[in-house]
Amino acid sequence: MSEPVTDVGQDPNRRDFIYIAAGAGAVGAAAMVAVPLIGQMNPAADTLALASIEYDLSKVEEGMQAVVKWRGKPLFVRYRTKKEIAEAKAVDIKTLRDPQTDAERVKAGHEQYLVLIGVCTHLGCVPNFGTGDYGGWFCPCHGSEYDTSGRIRQGPAPKNLEVPEYTFLSDTKIKVG
């Protein structure tokens, strides 16, 4: 008796499956390549997050602080009291790790307003106001303490809180960035 001869390579159902599977794999691979290439053409996230903002200072009362989100980071806008300004000016800058006078950190004629990027220069935590030994900000994560001018006084942070570029549009309005 002779057995029927079947040619496995000639089965049309099996061939169609292989074509479909190979095509689906090629489409998936193309998508995996195309998505990052198209995604990198989008603007950077920090440019989308308000490259510059205007803020009305009349919203902040003396002795208070407002926190505004700018470029994905907290921006501290502090209306300092006369006592805080006097304390900041009285510091001997030779004793500071990152020496800066208070006048270098504020705009002339507007010393009561202090504008800072609210990110600790040690590891990027957000410091709290009024809980440190120097009347300024305290970073609870690792113990960095800043004075009423945002200058590092104690702890592991290497630099002062950053002062962003800003200008006064009027006596009660600033533009940051």
UniProtKB/TrEMBL annotation:
This is Ubiquinol-cytochrome c reductase iron-sulfur subunit. Binds 1 [2Fe-2S] cluster per subunit. Its cofactor is [2Fe-2S] cluster. It is found in: Cell membrane. It comes from the Bacteria. Its EC number is 7.1.1.8. It is a single-pass membrane protein. Residues 82-175 form the Rieske domain.
